[in-house]
Amino acid sequence: MEPPVRQARTVSLPVLLGGLASTALTLALVYGLGEAYGFNAMGLYGYYVLPFGAFVVGLLAGSGYGIASKVTGFRIGRATLWVVLGLQVAAYALAKYLEYRMIAAQGGALPAFLPYLDEAARSIRFENDNGSVGQPLGALGYGVLLLELAGFGGGALLVPAALRSSPYCDACGRYMKTRAIGVLPAAVPERRMWRKADDEKAAYAAEQETARVQGMAVHDHLFGLARAGDGPAFAEASRLVAAGTKEAGKLPTRLPVSLASCPACRRGVLSSQVMTGAGNQTATTALDSADVSPALVRSLDA
Q1: Cβ neighbours of residue 258 under 8 Å, at least 6 residues apart?
Q2: What is the pTM assigned to this prediction?
Q3: Over its length of 302 residues, how does the chain's per-residue pLDDT go in tens digits?
Q4: CA-based angle 116:120:121, to the nearest 5?
């Protein structure tokens, strides 16, 4: 019997509360560091325009949304992301107001909040590499505040937005767990070629094509077993793929295969990719995916 499909909810209160809790704790830490050591975490910039500090603070502040989403099983959708963005903008404004109140509590003669914010924006100055402080930015200071807000809001959205692409079981309302099946070879090892050795280049290209065809044949066989629901044969084929993963991972083109499955109903999705290059030059594209039965998922645990 198929498990009943849960009705999708627009926004989850526990997720919002989790995010607000992490935001409050993060801002308390930021102001604690400012009070104790004079360290302005939100004011750290890279190349004068990259709000690195605000982004990291926002990332910590928004982590609660992702944690609560994982714990409750509520999948964060577009509506939730908009609510999160609105809450983080409000949290940034509240942080500025608390900053204003803290300065006022120390006995400083301050104007009303909005004039104070205008003065604070116009008086922003950057410290140069040699330790000297530049001139106030004037109206350009508003641009710095906007960058700071963008960094804070963007960092807060990173974790919940990343969860949107995580495999999810709509029937059970739970995130799936992903395991690596292995990596299939789809090329031969790279080797240097003499510039004018056309026959050697042609032979090498033929080897590469043969390896690609063989890799795709194994790939298609594995996915065929998955779609047919042949658990024992799929489990044996997966063990062979896993055994060759280390060597295949060194090749210029390889085919990673993974299985995402629901911890509750055990239904899953088998997926593969084409991966080329290495290091910072690595490129990945989706290749294939197939829904698999609970029995096939269990076969891997047998």
Answers
A1: 178, 179, 180, 181, 270, 271, 272
A2: 0.70
A3: 344 334 345 678 889 999 999 999 998 898 888 778 778 788 787 776 788 888 999 999 999 999 999 888 888 888 888 999 999 999 988 888 877 877 777 666 678 888 888 888 888 777 766 666 677 788 888 888 888 899 899 999 998 888 888 888 888 888 999 999 999 999 998 877 666 677 778 888 899 999 999 999 999 999 999 999 999 999 999 999 999 999 999 999 999 999 999 999 999 999 999 999 888 889 999 999 999 999 999 988 87
A4: 120
- Asked if residue 92 lies in contact with residue 30, where contact means CB atoms within 8 angstroms, the answer is no
Distance CA 152, CA 146 (A): 10
List, in sequence order, the alpha helices (H) in the chain.
13-37, 52-72, 78-105, 113-122, 141-163, 198-228, 231-243, 245-248, 294-299
User: Which two three-digit tokens encode residue 240?
Assistant: 């062979």
Whose CA is closest to 65, among 78, 79, 82, 84? 84
Distance between CA atoms of 15 and 68, rounded to whole angstroms?
A: 5
For the record, the structure tokens of 216 come out as 């795709």
SS3 59: helix
Question: For 46, which DSSP code?
Answer: B
CA-to-CA separations, 122 to 28, 116, 148, 164, in angstroms, rounded:
26, 10, 14, 39
Q: Which amino acid is at 180?
A: A
Instruction: Enumerate residues 6+ apart whose C-beta is below 8 A from 175.
Output: 69, 70, 73, 75, 163, 166, 167, 168, 169
Q: Are 175 and 73 spatial neighbours (Cβ–Cβ below 8 Å)?
A: yes
